[in-house]
Amino acid sequence: MKKRMTSIIFILTLTIFCAVGFAEEPPPGGGAPPPPPADSYTPDPGGGAPPPPPADSYTPDPGGGAPPSVDDPNSPPPGDDKMTGITTPQVNDPNAPPLDVNNPPPDGFDPMAGGFDPTQFDKDNVTGFGTDALNNITSDQWNNFDPNAMAGFDKDQISNFDPNAVAGFDKDQMAKFDPNVMAGFDKDQIANFDPNAMAGFDKDQISNFDPNAVAGFDKDQMAMFDPNVMAGFDKDQISNFDPNAVAGFDKAQMAMFDPNVMAGFDKNQIANFDPNAVAGFDKDQVAMFDPNVMAGFDKNQIANFDPNAVAGFDKDQVAMFDPNAVGGFNKAQMAMFDPNAVAGFDKDKVALFDPFAVAGFKSQQLQNFNPKAIFGFDALQVQNFAPGEFKNMPSKDISEMLANFDPAKINPNDVQQLLPPDWNIDANGVLQPPPGANLAFPSFAPQVANSIKLPDIPNFSKGFGLGGTGTDVIAGLNDTLAALGVGDQFNFKQSPVDGILHVKGSGDATGTQFAFLPDADKMVQAPDGTQPGLSLNQAGHYVLTTPDGMQIPLIPAPVDLFKNRGCDPGRVS
Fold first, then answer.
1. pTM
2. Per DSSP, what are the bridge partners of residue 518?
């Protein structure tokens, strides 16, 4: 009986112990215990087979064995598993401990993991970031890095930044990058920079960009560069700018480019400059443009050049302007052209000058126009020449300009106000210069072998007058021979090909030939009363004085000058 009581007491004690040990602790203040967790399992109170576990629950291997790895795709969800005792990582757990900033994350680190605080890093510990880590950092995370930390990244790390994420960099962060690492950025990354961040770059950083990468900049980004950094760009970088992007440059930025890099711009880039921005160029910069790109400038851009900058253009550059663009030059700009540069204008460009802008030309500029270009001026332009500047030209240049005007567009009344007091012009356009004035006539280029270079030859089929009107010079020379009593035996003819003056004998002089080249620089008007005839000058050359007072020096030349040199440009019969 005693043993039976002892067994009953033991069973009751065990029952009470188990009931107390597994009972839910009531909430403070009493009341019903809380409901079980949503993901817990409660057996069916009515009996029967238990339901299947929830989809996201973990079921241990019923056959036993080691628990699965945390890398196993069949592993339980994050958290503590009460059945196995395994704790799996909580990736985005805000309560996870912070990363050890003294030991930067290894390659393969996911910055989205919990505890990644960008503000904890400085320039000394960002050096440990691996390729995958850098590629996974987001724009928002970059934006939270300490600007000073940027100085720790090297070129190879920068090349692994996610192109979309670099939009998170701001002005202060950009300013802290080591200039030597800028070459790590590529075109795709640069294309995603925040335009407002551009102002952070300095000259030294700019100079280290990969030339191929700068093609990523767009118009909005260009517009935000500090003008002082423009001097950092070199010729190779400039040549790679997207033509559409250069439209973002303004006057202040243009003014700061190194003159030596101007040759990097091409025609398509030039065509996209903001017209207001070209006002920033100075003459040293202008002088360095490749002549071939000048055709990119349009009329509106040209109109905005600083007059002082125009002085930088040379003959070769001027020759490449689009004729339609030169109409943009104004009077103040015209006045600043280098006198030697105006020789680059041709008749098509001259024809499109603003009629009122030509008033800016000085005598030194007018006298340097190519004779063929002078033919492009029209009456309205000529009427707007500054009379004082025209009159101040040397007599040879006055003669040359008058001789090369187009008589179909310009009449004697249009030029009357331009003539010096001792010059006259009649109703037909024939000129009467004062004694000693140098003479000029329309000219043509000799057509000879490529290896022979000759200056233009006066066209003696023309006269001394407006556009070559008046009695032709050849007739005057033959009148001189007649006055000498040999007109029936000799006469002058000029080859229309090479410009050589040939004198051939006839009658008793048959077979006698002479050849001459006119000395164009020494043709003058004889003193009043000088009779037609033949004389020698100090150089020992023949000088023929025509009945109307023109003195023409003739330089002897071989009859077969060009034939003997392997070419036959044409003979006069």
1. 0.76
2. 554
> Residue 143: helix, strand or coil by DSSP?
helix
* Cα three-residue angle 43-49-50, rounded to 5 degrees: 35
Residue 486 near residue 477 (C-beta atoms within 8 A): no
H or E segment at 424?
strand 424-425
CA proximity to 531, closest of 492, 484, 569, 466: 484
**pLDDT class of 568 with cuts at 50, 70, 90:** very low
Residues in Cβ contact with 482 at an 8 Å cutoff, skipping those fewer than 6 apart: none
The residue that leads in pLDDT, 138 or 8, is 138
Query: What is the pLDDT, as a whole number, of residue 572?
Result: 40
Domain parsing of the chain, residue ranges: 99-216, 250-393, 398-573
H helix runs in 177-276, sequence order: 187-190, 203-206, 219-222, 235-238, 251-254, 267-270
339 to 108, 318, 366, 390, 397: CA distances (angstroms): 68, 12, 8, 14, 13
Q: How far apart are CA 515 and CA 561, in angstroms?
A: 9
Around Cβ 228, how many Cβ atoms within 10 Å? 13
| Of 93 and 390, the one with more pLDDT | 390
**Helical spans, DSSP H, in 191-330:** 203-206, 219-222, 235-238, 251-254, 267-270, 283-286, 299-302, 307-310, 315-318
Number of Cβ atoms within 10 Å of the Cβ of 49: 7
- Residue 58 confidence (pLDDT): 41
**Distances in whole angstroms, Cα of residue 289 to Cα of each of 234, 266, 283, 444, 450:** 14, 9, 10, 32, 30
**473's tokens:** 């010079």
CA 265/CA 293 separation, integer angstroms: 7
Distance separating alpha carbons of residues 110 and 136, to the nearest angstrom: 7
**3-state DSSP call for residue 205?**
helix
Q: Which uninterrupted H or E stretch holds 491? A: strand 490-494
pLDDT digits (tens, 9 = 90+) for 494-552: 998 889 999 999 988 898 999 999 999 999 999 999 999 999 999 999 999 999 999 99
How many residues appear in the chain? 573
For 98, which DSSP code? P
DSSP 348-387: HHHTTS-TTGGGG--HHHHTTS-HHHHTT--HHHHHTS-H
Question: Does residue 511 contact residue 501 with C-beta atoms inside 8 Å?
Answer: no
Give the pLDDT confidence of 135-158 residue by residue, as tens digits.
Answer: 889 999 999 999 999 999 999 999
3-state helix, strand, coil in the chain (%, to 5): 40, 10, 55
Report how far residue 381's alpha carbon sits from residue 401's, in angstroms, rounded to the nearest whole number.
Answer: 13
Tens digits of residue pLDDT in 55-102: 444 444 444 444 444 444 454 444 444 333 333 333 344 444 444 444
The set of residues, in sequence order, having a beta carbon less than 8 Å from that of 132 and lying 6+ positions away, is 107, 108, 109
